[in-house]
Design brief:
globular, 5-stranded mixed sheet, single chain, alpha+beta, about 25% helix
Length: about 130
């Protein structure tokens, strides 16, 4: 599974977005270190707050199926310009490692690659809860 193939799967997942309010479809595809792929789309709610982003849908599928070793997450929005994961998704992704690769794309030929550490520097994570004895 290479970056372009992962982007292609995120684009396919984007078609399944449930977005009656924003009309802004997002798709994501998570690649685990074992080579498994979990896809997701954004799912909106009429009471707005329960809305879940595509990245968290895909990552929740991986984690809930027992796959926590995350290598890469590809995300595609709906604009001609590249969209990056929102702040909530950055924190959610960071939980599972600072070196996770993030591919933000508009197509298989137009994308940028960062790590979650690039997108969320000086972050708070699981290690920060393990030595609190004040
Ligand atoms: N959205 C995502 O799916 N991922 C992001 O990183 C940013 C925002 C969704 C949430 C909502 O359904 C729509 O895009 C507009 O914010």
């Amino acid at each position: 599974m290479n970056d372009k193939e992962l982007i292609r799967l995120a684009i396919e997942a984007r078609e399944r977005a449930y977005v009656p309010y924003s009309k802004f479809k997002v798709g994501a595809a998570v690649l685990t270190e074992e080579g498994l792929v979990f896809t997701g789309c954004n799912i909106e709610s009429s009471s707005y707050t329960p809305t879940i982003c595509a990245e968290r849908t895909a990552l929740s599928k991986a984690i809930s199926e027992g796959h926590r070793n995350i290598d890469t997450i590809a995300v595609v929005g709906s604009l001609e310009k590249i969209s990056f994961p929102c702040g909530v998704c950055r924190q959610f992704i960071r939980e599972f490692g600072e070196d996770i690769r993030i591919i933000s794309a508009t197509s298989e030929d137009d994308y940028k690659v960062y790590t979650i550490k690039d997108l969320l520097p000086e972050s708070f994570g699981p290690e920060d809860l393990r030595h609190g004895n004040i």
